[in-house]
Design goal:
The chain is of the alpha+beta class. The chain has 3 helices and 20 strands. The two termini are about 75 Å apart.
């Protein structure tokens, strides 16, 4: 007699059968996924960019950024504290050298200039008076010296005469001694006058030079004030375009405050900056490739800042053609600074895939018209090419477009 199977055991048997069926389906799914991963999806050749690797010269460069600025740009500042009375032009106007841009209130500056001119005239009068006074005094001393020389000559003659009389018995010793004493006294007085004349000449010469120096200082002060007044005319230093202008009439302006900026918008240069970590590859004279839209303009580094600011190093690029039609003031540009040139390098065209030297996973076209994933080592680069250090041979074709959606594929079929 058959025995009824308990409900609990029937449930266990049913769960075992369900588990076996599920295991079969999971296995089939795994096989399908494996086949997909191994065999890959398909992609049309028109949907991707394939480039051929070749062997050639590579100018190794480092990327930087820059801004186009006028080759010549000068800010005009106020030399005095004043205010704006009139404005003669507008921003964007082309001006000639010496053309007036603004008129400032120069009443106070002109008053100081007149005071300085009066001081110069006074110094000149003082110099003339001192010269006349010195000449008169020294002339008087020179006459006294000449008189004393004549007196000494007379006394020397008397001494000689007394000695002659004494030799013939007509003179006396006392008279000789008196004549000799008078002669010695006169000689000492003459020496004293000569010394006084020499000292006075030196003293008056020093005093005269001092007054001349004071006069020279006054003249330089006058010249400086005259330049200040001339500069306050706010004239264009050279032909150019007014790119900024203070047009606030009646506004008080402090000394040194900017009034206008005149730029030459026909010639340009590049103010570049590069990460501090790459600044060691900068050198004065190094070639620079400047990308403007899809065009390349060549130039060279003229200066490199010795200091870093916010992790960036500044440098200046002079362009081979600094007046090209592509150049626009304020336009941001991409720069490639060339620091090395390598010959016979395996290279592939540059693209969005390249993020710096290192290891990459890229798809390479095979002989059976498939795309095979490879690990590729890339090195230096420039705008056009990237160095291939390993993984690709010259003549092989490589996908250089975005393939991120195929990250899990080992191989992809290529369709026409």
């Amino acid at each position: 007699m058959d025995r009824e199977i308990p409900v609990q055991q029937q449930r266990k048997e049913r769960m075992k059968r369900i588990a076996k069926v599920a295991a079969v389906f999971v296995g089939l799914a795994a096989v399908i996924v494996a086949v997909v991963l191994l065999m890959g999806d398909s992609v049309r050749s028109s949907e991707i960019i394939i480039k051929k690797a070749d062997r050639g010269t590579l100018e190794s460069s480092v990327a930087a950024s820059g801004k186009i600025v006028p080759l010549y740009e000068q800010a005009i500042v106020s030399p005095v504290s004043t205010r704006i009375l009139e404005v003669y032009c507008n921003e964007g106007d082309t001006v000639e050298a010496g053309q007036s841009l603004l008129r400032l209130d120069l009443q106070a500056a002109e008053t100081d200039l007149q005071r300085a001119a009066d001081e110069v005239r006074m110094k000149k009068n003082e110099i003339e008076q001192a010269s006349l006074s010195n000449e008169t005094y020294l002339t008087d001393l020179e006459m006294r010296v000449k008189v004393k020389e004549m007196s000494l000559s007379h006394l020397e003659a008397e001494v000689a005469n007394e000695r002659r009389l004494d030799s013939i018995g007509s003179g006396t010793g006392d008279r000789i001694r008196q004549a000799e004493l008078a002669c010695s006294t006169a000689r000492m007085e003459l020496d004293q006058l000569r010394t006084q004349l020499a000292n006075e000449r030196k003293s008056y010469a020093a005093s005269f030079r001092s007054k001349q120096l004071e006069g020279s200082i006054s003249e330089r002060n006058l010249a400086a004030m005259q330049r200040t007044v001339d500069d306050a005319g706010v004239k264009a230093p050279r032909k150019g375009t007014v790119t900024w202008l203070n047009k606030s009439l009646g506004t008080s302006i402090g000394a040194g405050e900017k009034l206008a900026v005149v730029s030459d918008l026909t010639h340009f240069k590049i103010e570049g900056e590069i990460a501090e970590s790459s600044s060691g590859k900068l050198s004065v004279g190094a070639p620079v490739r400047v990308r403007i839209n899809r065009n390349i303009v060549d130039g060279r580094i003229s200066t490199v800042s010795p200091q870093s600011k916010d992790g960036m190093v500044q440098f200046t690029v002079f362009l081979d053609d600094d007046s090209g039609k592509l150049l626009r003031s304020g336009l941001r540009t991409e720069l490639n600074v060339v620091y090395d040139v390598q010959d016979s390098v395996v290279r592939i065209p540059n693209g969005a895939y390249f993020l710096g030297a290192g290891s990459y996973s890229m798809f390479v076209k095979t002989a059976d018209n498939r795309l095979e994933r490879r690990t590729v080592s890339l090195g230096d680069s420039n705008f056009d090419y990237v160095e291939v250090r390993a993984g690709i041979k010259p003549g092989e074709e490589v996908v250089v477009s975005d393939m991120r959606k195929y990250d899990r594929r080992g191989s992809i079929k290529l369709k026409d």
